[in-house]
Amino acid sequence: MFDRLRAITAGTFFTVGLAAAVVAAFGYATYLSYWGGMDVNNAFSYQSAVVAAQRDADLLSVEQYDRALPQTQLRIQEKLLDSDLALIDQFAENPAEKPPPFGFPATRLAYQQLDEELRTREDFGQQRFSAAVDSNVNTRNLSNALFAIVALSFTFLQHRLRRKIEQERDTVEKLQSSLVSYKELANVDIGKHLVSAEGAQIGGDIFDVYDVDGRHGSFLVADVSGKGLAAAVDTAFIKYAIRALLGDDLDPGEVLNRFSALYERNAQRNDSFVVLFLGVIDTRSGQVRYASAGHEPAWLRKNGHVETLPPTGPLIGVMPESMYESRTLQLDPGDTLVISTDGLTESRDARDRMLDAEGVRRWLEEVEASAQATADTIVNRLHKRSPTIEDDLALLVVRYDPKTPPPAAAEPALASGERR
């Protein structure tokens, strides 16, 4: 009798204990599932704030010293930069990550020092983001294991979730490897400008030049819909995601196919979209492969003649499962590619006439200069033609300028996924 009573009592205690353990496991698993990603979000917000501050500091320096705008017109950009620095301070986790002291008006030396300091913060953000991702993956694995204990009937779903987490981790690791500073490309002369609309928030225009593997370089121009911090976060995501995908495949069309699916899952807003031009150049031969998603026409200047390069696919984020194709062209020494967002072609003069792609083409026929001089000329003409800048502009000029004679014949275009 006593033995039976002890068995029943022991069974009851075991059941109650197991129930309590299950409830505790479920609660803890829910906590890990909900809060486990906060460190990653904060680390990414910190990195995005640093990118936005770098962008606004560079723009403010140009407007203050190159364009010599009066202090009253610089006030808005100063407030934007100040708010970016405040966001860095908000998401910083230690004194080393906090923004450097910076005051207005600033000298050129102060802007240079700020740029160096922000590059250091970018490195801190990369390390922090990588550590947060590793910690979050471990947290998610533990959370999934606890949920499996609570509901063994979901074993198949658990397997799929675990596999998805590992796939996400692989993608994130590639993103981390792409967080490197800007590097010049051998045999390629680069000109660039970033012009902000008057009175606008942080925009979604971006350009990026990236040394992929020492021989191949990429150049990117993109415009994200919307303004503000959400657009800035999207531009950072685009830059680093494209860099990561180029690590697996040098074919721009295939990169855009994969990026389109990635963006649809990770965009800050459901209604956002991206226009984008991506080119990959073989710096030894001058061969370029490019793909563009609903982008403004790019322009190729060759032997004094300028032709337009139309889009090769639709906007990203508007038509799911869209396909993008690559096209190939051969740059000879002195040939120049010009890529811009619609802030150039849709600019209007005092009589409200749009410049359009043909107007830009005529401008380029009159310009024969280095890449940066070409970019400067375009922006100067834009300011003279348009009384106000109503939309942001990202402008990139890519001129093939080999220091050594190119090969006798361009090598064949790389097949999708092929690396040298």
Using the coordinates shown, work out and report the CATH topology of the largest domain. Phosphatase 2c, domain 1
Tell me about the biggest sheet? 5 strands, antiparallel
Assembly type of the chains comes to single chain
Number of helices: 10
* Total domains: 2
CATH architecture label name of the largest domain: 4-Layer Sandwich
Which CATH class of the largest domain is shown? Alpha Beta
**Widest sheet: strand order?**
1-10-9-6-7
Task: Give me the CATH superfamily of the largest domain.
Answer: PPM-type phosphatase domain
Could you tell me the number of beta strands?
10
Beta-strand fraction estimate: 15-25%
Mean pLDDT: 76
Helix coverage percent: 40-55%
Question: Would you write up a description of this structure?
Answer:
By secondary structure, the chain is of the alpha+beta class. It has ten helices and ten strands. It has helices at residues 2-35, 38-66, 71-91, 108-150, 155-177, 228-246, 252-266, 342-345, 356-365, 371-385, and strands at residues 188-195, 205-211, 216-224, 274-282, 287-293, 298-302, 305-309, 327-330, 336-340, 393-400. The strands form two sheets. The protein has a five-stranded antiparallel sheet with strand order 1-10-9-6-7. The chain has a five-stranded antiparallel sheet with strand order 2-3-4-5-8. Strand 6 (298-302) and strand 7 (305-309) form a beta hairpin. It is globular and about 55 Å long.
Please provide a brief summary of the model.
This protein has helices spanning 2-35, 38-66, 71-91, 108-150, 155-177, 228-246, 252-266, 342-345, 356-365, 371-385, and strands spanning 188-195, 205-211, 216-224, 274-282, 287-293, 298-302, 305-309, 327-330, 336-340, 393-400. By secondary structure, it is of the alpha+beta class.
